[in-house]
Write a structure and sequence with these properties.
alpha/beta; about 30% helix; about 160 residues
Length: about 160
């Protein structure tokens, strides 16, 4: 079942690298804050690297201005996410999260089978707007599309 508006973010642990490897709980990440979580099929993949992540990098100051934290998540290991962030010059504060085993993606109901491309189970392309751990808006792409989960589209559809 896919996550819906009004649902609480499922509790799962993710990984990220800052000073070292960190394990973070999704409730700790999303409770008591406004946030946008966007998910991509894979770091270093064409649309993700050329359009999706760059859209959030470009609009990151506007999200911050509105008091919204930004999280990028992929079913990749934390070392890949760190390298991708460095290659894309991700600004400090835009957090890169690793869902290496796809547990969070499955809990959200947003997994897809990318086996035909040799990528196994991955995340669908999406964005979620979350307030205090509760999903307030969903922006879930149809397979192969990049329309409703861009930073610009998300900003246009968030409350001011």
């Amino acid at each position: 079942m896919t996550i819906h508006v009004g649902d609480r973010i499922p509790e799962v642990t993710l990984k990220r690298i800052r000073e070292g490897m960190e394990t973070i709980d999704t409730h700790a990440l999303f409770d008591s804050r406004k946030a946008v979580l966007f998910g991509v099929p894979g770091a270093f993949t064409p649309t993700c690297s050329a359009r999706h992540l760059p859209s959030f990098i470009e609009q990151f100051p506007e999200f911050r201005h509105r008091g919204i934290e930004v999280f990028c998540m992929a079913v990749n290991d934390p070392f890949v996410m760190k390298a991708w962030a460095e290659s894309q010059q991700v600004p400090e504060g835009l957090q890169m999260l690793s869902d290496g085993n796809g547990e969070f993606t499955r809990a959200l109901g947003l997994e897809m089978d990318a086996s035909s491309s040799g990528m196994g189970t991955r995340s669908r392309r999406f964005a979620l707007y979350v307030e205090d751990g509760v999903v307030r808006e969903t922006f879930i792409e149809e397979p192969g599309k990049f329309e409703v989960s861009s930073a610009q589209y998300v900003l246009e559809h968030l409350p001011r």
